[in-house]
Amino acid sequence: MKFESNIGDYLKENEIKPSFQRIKVFEYLVDKMNHPTVDMIYKELVNDIPTLSKTTIYNTLKLFVEHKIVSVVNIEDNETRYDADVSNHGHFKCSKCGKLYDFNYENSNLSIKNLQNFKIEKTHLYLNGICVNCMD
Amino acid sequence: MKFESNIGDYLKENEIKPSFQRIKVFEYLVDKMNHPTVDMIYKELVNDIPTLSKTTIYNTLKLFVEHKIVSVVNIEDNETRYDADVSNHGHFKCSKCGKLYDFNYENSNLSIKNLQNFKIEKTHLYLNGICVNCMD
DNA sequence: TTTCATTTTTGTAATCATTACAAATATATA
DNA sequence: TATATATTTGTAATGATTACAAAAATGAAA
Ligand SMILES: [Mn+2]
Ligand SMILES: [Mn+2]
Ligand SMILES: [Zn+2]
Ligand SMILES: [Zn+2]
User: Fold this and answer.
1) How far apart are CA A82 and CA A112, in angstroms?
2) How many alpha carbons fall within 13 Å on the CB side of residue A47?
3) Of all nucleotides in the shown strands, which has a C1' nearest the CA of B80?
4) DSSP H helical segments within chain B, as ranges?
5) Which pLDDT does position A136 carry in this prediction?
6) What's the first-to-final CA gap in chain A, in angstroms?
7) N or C: which end of chain A has fewer CB within 10 A?
């Protein structure tokens, strides 16, 4: 996570005007680190911003993804999730408790055979199974 | 791909009654190997089976997935794709031509640091970039 | 073969996430 | 202040998927 300073500045550094709503959405992502859906973000923020529209959440996340400060996490069908951590990392989903874990991996370890001369731009690694807390 | 014999037998081996529609759907997956969406399967098969319902495609694929003879490929948002190859393999999507490539990789190479004592049941690896045919 | 239960398929309606779009509001500039 | 531009909002439209009940097919008694 290359986010250190305050959120407004971080957005500006990435050529995004830091509106109140945008700051709130990014703040949510950074604070919670929970790979939320649009709905999760909306339900939480509408408490602070009663006039908030779900369209704004969609617009904002789209903008963040375009400016590469947020990445899309596509794990299960029909639930797009978002992540303020845009570094190369994978996700583990526990099939018992449903929790999503981040983990690091080395791209170089993947050693693909069939893809000689392909230019790999991005890797997405998603694992599922049982997390350590759900083991007997 | 552990599919050798005829499709009806293969379905029976997996405790699925081989109805005409089910055979056709599985046949499509095996013949095309194109990771199709529900709609692609429907549009093709409705030529053979004019009374075919899209619901049947959904039902059938759900059944196949439950019986583990078909796996779900979730790459882009809002397009669930299906694969009759349930062996461990990854997918590469070319961002120029859009084609989806299969490739093999070794699970043992993954050796994740942060996930000690986690039980990994399934891995999903998806890469994107430029395929060899689209390179200058 | 007829009867009856069970399974499968079909068609339609409902749901849910996402997008399109235009009006309203806020912000920036002259 | 006046005006242009950017952002937010609300509503309607779209599209994939699911729910559900009726129709059709299948399979096993009788
Ligand atoms: Mn993450
Ligand atoms: Mn495949
Ligand atoms: Zn768990
Ligand atoms: Zn290509």
Assistant:
1) 27
2) 6
3) D16
4) 7-13, 20-32, 38-48, 54-66
5) 78
6) 33
7) C
- Residue B122's nearest CA partner among A6, A70, A90 is A90
Residues of A whose CB is below 8 A from B102: 114
Distance (Å) from the alpha carbon of A132 to chain B's nearest alpha carbon: 5
> What pLDDT, in 10s, does the model give residues B44-59?
999 999 999 999 999 9
Asked if pLDDT for residue A110 goes beyond 80, the answer is: no
Query: What is the rounded average pLDDT of the residues A86-111?
Result: 87
Q: How many residues does chain A have?
A: 136
Taking CA B17 as the corner, what is the angle to CA B3 and CA B53, rounded to the nearest 5 degrees?
A: 100
Does the CB of A59 sit below 7 A from strand D? yes
Is B127's CB within 8 Å of A126's CB?
no
**Cβ contact, residue pair A127, B135, below 8 Å:** no
Residues of A in contact with B129 (CB under 8 A): 118-122
